[in-house]
Amino acid sequence: MKKQINVTENRILVKMAGNIYLEDAVIWKQELLGYLDEKYNMCIIDMSDVSYIDAAGLGALVAVSNRSHHLGVRVTIVGLKGIVKELFQLTHNTT
Questions:
Q1: Which of 7, 53, 69, 74 could form a disulfide with 20 if both were Cys (CB 3.0 to 4.6 A apart)?
Q2: ∠ CA 17-48-12 to the nearest 5 degrees?
Q3: Using CA atoms in the order 41, 33, 46, 10, what is the torsion angle rounded to 10 degrees?
Q4: What percent of the chain is predicted at pLDDT more than 90?
């Protein structure tokens, strides 16, 4: 998995690519939670180049979503397609 995080005054933009597995999810979840704690207003997660995400990756996104809700940070996930979109639909995660 590859990721790129760009931060502006009030927004975090996360661009992910490749396959997201447990090993990757643990690392980027902690990194992104650290950014959320810095009180940004919005977080956009672009998954248009993600080919696959496992249960740990979905769990990491849920953790990020839960923390952001608690902190009042709006999280938007964009670019879902193929099997990744299907997994989100099957698990009732919405964007």
A1: 53
A2: 80
A3: 20
A4: 68
